[in-house]
């Protein structure tokens, strides 16, 4: 029961973390910058939001985004962020599918419980890889942006990436710890039921024979 609860918590954390990484990958509010100085930008109410895909100008009267077209001329932290965040988003999908198929409430035919454990461990390993892939760009991107003049604050996309990375790390560790390696776990669900009912039937045989012997003695 404890392993099932731990596995369920790991699945929920991993799924939420993967969704956070996908949101961080697809949005561009990673850092907020100002080219004219903080006081001037506050008076003009004009800020620049940068992400791995676009640079957006945000003001009360204007919202304009320009995509990065010169891919080879981009800084290393932007190219690395693109590659690793896309990898994390892609690897998260089969990880979530494996974890969903390893849930105790889902049965795929007459499969052994050890098969579910293998899928849970494999999904947990994939989630740890997803977390590591997202950890590098979410740390490197703000460091690279800090080298440019005008950095003011971090955006919600970066915070979402950090939270998603932590959730994937915690979920992957919980899933790795929830695996049951006992010998009895290799039995199938029907085998366990058959073993249980055979024990129940075997336990009732002496009672039935004693009743027959009492009836014969009475006659």
Note the topology.
Layout: H1 2-26, E1 31-33, H2 38-44, E2 46-50, E3 54-59, E4 63-67, H3 76-101, H4 113-146, E5 151-154, H5 156-177, H6 189-218
Antiparallel strand pairs: 1-2, 1-5, 2-3, 3-4
Overview of the structural elements:
With 219 residues, the chain is α+β, with helices and mostly antiparallel strands. Helices cover 66% and strands 11% of the residues. The protein contains 6 helices and 5 strands. A 5-stranded antiparallel sheet has the order 4-3-2-1-5. A hairpin with a 3-residue loop joins strand 3 and strand 4. The longest helix is centred in the middle third of the chain and has 34 residues. The protein is elongated. The C terminus is likely disordered.
Identify the notable features of this structure and list them briefly.
219 residues, 11% strand, disordered C terminus, elongated, alpha+beta, 6 helices
Overview in brief:
Helices cover 66% and strands 11% of the residues. It has helices spanning 2-26, 38-44, 76-101, 113-146, 156-177, 189-218, and strands spanning 31-33, 46-50, 54-59, 63-67, 151-154.
Cross-sheet strand order for the largest sheet: 4-3-2-1-5
- The SSE string, one letter per element, is HEHEEEHHEHH
Give the oligomer, counting copies of the same chain as homo and different chains as hetero: single chain
Largest sheet: 5 strands, antiparallel
Shape: elongated
What's the mean pLDDT score? 79
* Straight-line N-to-C gap: 52 Å
Q: Strand content of the residues, in percent?
A: 5-15%
- Total of helices: 6
Evaluate the radius of gyration. 28 Å
| Beta strand count | 5
Query: Which regions contain 5 or more consecutive residues with pLDDT less than 50?
Result: 183-219
SS-based structural class? alpha+beta
Helicity level, as a percent range?
55-70%
């Amino acid at each position: 029961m404890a392993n099932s609860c731990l596995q369920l918590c790991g699945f929920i954390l991993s799924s939420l973390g993967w969704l956070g990484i996908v949101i961080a990958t697809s949005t561009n509010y990673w850092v907020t910058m100002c080219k004219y100085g903080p006081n001037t930008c506050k008076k003009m109410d004009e800020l620049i939001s940068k992400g791995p895909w676009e640079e957006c100008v945000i003001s009360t009267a204007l919202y304009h985004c320009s995509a990065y077209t010169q891919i080879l001329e981009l800084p290393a932290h932007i190219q690395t962020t693109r590659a690793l965040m896309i990898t994390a988003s892609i690897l998260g999908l089969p990880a979530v599918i494996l974890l969903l198929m390893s849930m105790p409430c889902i049965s795929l035919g007459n499969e052994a419980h050890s098969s579910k454990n293998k899928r849970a461990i494999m999904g947990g390993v994939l989630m740890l890889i997803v977390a590591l892939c997202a950890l590098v760009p979410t740390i490197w991107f703000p460091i690279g942006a800090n080298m440019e003049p005008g950095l003011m604050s971090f955006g919600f996309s970066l915070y979402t990436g950090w939270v998603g990375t932590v959730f994937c790390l915690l979920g992957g560790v919980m899933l790795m710890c929830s695996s049951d390696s006992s010998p009895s776990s290799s039995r199938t669900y029907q085998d366990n039921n058959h073993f249980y009912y055979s024990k129940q039937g075997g336990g009732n045989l002496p009672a039935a024979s004693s009743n027959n012997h009492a009836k014969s003695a009475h006659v």
